Predict the 3D structure of the following.
Amino acid sequence: MTNPSLGTTPRLDRWLTIGSDGTVAVRSGKVELGQGLLTALAQIVAEELDVDPGRIRMVPAATDVSPDESYTAGSLSIMHSGGALRAVGAQVRALFLAEAAARLAVPAGELSVTDGCIAAPDGRSTSYWELAAAVPLDRDLEPGAAAKSPADYGVVGRSLPRVDVPDKVAGRRRFLHDLRPDGMLFGRVVRPPSRGAVLVSVDGQAARRVPGVVAVVRDGSFLGVVAEREENALRAQAALRSAAVWQEEDTLPDERDLPGFLVSAPTEETVLAETEAQSRPAARSVRARFTRPYLAHASIAPSCGLALWDGGRLSVWSHSQGVHKLHASICRSQGLAPEDVVVQHVEGAGCYGHNAADDAAYDAVLLARAVPGRPVQVVWTREDELGWGPLGPAMVIDVEVELDETGGVQRWQHDVWSNGHAHRPGPPSAPLLAATHVAAAETALPAGDPPLPNGGGSGRNAVPLYDLPGQLVRTHRLTTMPLRTSALRALGAHLNVYAIESVVDELAVLAGADPVDYRLGLLGDERARAVLRAAAERAGWGSGVPDVGSGTGLGVGLARYKNKGAYCAVVAEVEAETHVRVRRLTVAVDVGLEVNPDGVVNQIEGGALQALSWTTKEQVRFDARTVTSRTWEEYPILTFSEVPPVDVVLLDRPGDPSLGAGEASIGPTAAAIGNALYAATGLRVRSLPLTPENVVAAMEG
Amino acid sequence: MTVRVNGADHEVVCDPDTPLLYVLRNDLGLVGAKFGCGLGLCGACNVLVDGHPVHSCDTPVWSVADKRVTTVEGLGDDGRPHRLQETFVEEQALQCGYCTAGMLVTAAALLEKEPDADEAGVRRALDGNLCRCGAHNRIVRAVLCARTCGA
């Protein structure tokens, strides 16, 4: 398999350099999003070079020094960046061994490396650090240098503590929000009151009268303030907001009939799977419609950006998932040459997909333009974060299954209606938010979907993992976009897996079979079978057909993320009448080689709990003009008292490539909860979230 | 005006209605407490005032003039980290870490008041602190461990 990161950046010293001071500088194009990536990548390099992980310095991604590895997304970082660094590390090691062999006059094969010290059998030695100047790395990776065998791993596969945790626990300056470069000013943006609102007039005098206000910026319908002190930036923002006159219009669909809107809007159809069906008439059929609302990223940190114009040069600091893509957007919108702009990553909000980080960076660019020579930091309000950030798309899925006389599936049809799940910055079709508000406004096209070989978007995991004949799987991507949607963790897999697993569960009931056994009967993939069995066993899943309707129940959910990533099975125990309470989650996962097992567990349990929150509680609310769920009271997320124990079983396969862990547990967790709710109540609730309102609606049929 | 933070008095020149959070972060350079919502609904900005957790984002600085403010930076003692800071590292009790400072001071206040708090009590005490990454159970374990493992 070719590594796209190495294809873009084959040169060794773009990835790592050896310092004579005993350190190794590693430059990944992937970024730390709270997922522990920097620690895992450092482990991979330390392993290949045979140095202590403490010697590795992970350089934050920046457009002027780091490889372009596109976005940090799709659970691909360990595969792409980890794979590249493993290959580069192996070759760098070989180059240093060759130099050492020449100097010590012994064959390279007889040398050993211990924490960077290269020793000959007779005890003479040198080191990476001594040879650093003598071994040029300004050359491309060549095939040949073999990476270590997993059997020889000593650092990879260990749960090393994360490199960023000590700073975060001590409250040290680590987040973008914490940076205070000399002369920094505080910027705030007054967003329009609604989608499509146009600024008619604004009187900036009251805002300018706030002490320490340095600039009031208006460009079309983009409006903001810059002040010496943060509290005064907020005051000026409030003053400016009340002085602005907007022309508004109704642009949003009726929230009460969101599914009706999705299935009647103009769409573009894509067939993801089509296999021959038996032509005989069905003995029985099962039809079901599943829906989910728009979902918010809802990071605890509001998005933040920092920018400085100095002469003709622009520096930007962002918690973007893709600094090179953000760089491209900024250069295009500002008409700047690429070499005049640098975008550097600084850690920020926990990131679960394409959030407002890039938009906040561009807000800072626009405000800082008014105060050249001084850095401007923009922090979004909570209300704007929940109201204006990109949303996970609302979705409708219809599943129709035809069964033969024996109860076997003879035809499986799955149709998804959704806005696209990809509207990331970079291409002109997806301008940054403020670029759509300025006078020379750029026009956003509706979100697209990645093609299925890249994991798909609306159709992610829409093709069942099971061996089913007669499949027709289609997506219907909306070509109109009333609310901006983009990638939220697992993309379409959340509802696709929920739907497939709910229907498979229903088929098990129709067949009078145990849901786990029924699934095993449809599964040829050994690794999928293994996680399913492991989750069931660990959760104490009984044998035989479970009782339904006792008020508590177990449910199971299974998927292989993107049908080519990690395998994950979840068993949920739910207690419910109308209020759904998840009592415990048991998760079995196979991510191939685990670089840092505790990091895998952290990602898997975090994904499971986020999926639990989405599935049981979350729903973006809106009226005819704007998103109305803009505080934590209107957009509640899971709290400590609602969090169940999560037991994660890892099926380590050190000989198989790493498959990524960030998103694998989302779909199976949602599905397991829905199926456990059925076991507890006898109700198939197909409209998410599983609120009392939707449970009662399902009860009333 | 004078504010007493982490055992030291600081002279601050600002409007007395300024939220304590901005004084801590921008005037005193104590950036541990974070802005999360500005409405006291997420706990990311929590600090201790006379030992009680408060939302520094909606606490005007004048109201703490004669009180003791403790931030995450001041939880430890004589340069040693607080036991909770150690157990948070041991349990790797975070993902992004943005909510961590608020969790730590809230938990420290709980253990000060109820050294034997049980798991349900820890969860109740932290219900006002939101975590989006799903590190809740690790955080609870870290708090329970700080309790049972002693100082």
Q: What stands out?
A: Strands of chain B lie at 2-5, 8-11, 46-49, 52-55, 68-70. Chain B has two domains: 2-73, 83-148. The mean pLDDT of chain B is 96. The radius of gyration of chain B is 15 Å.
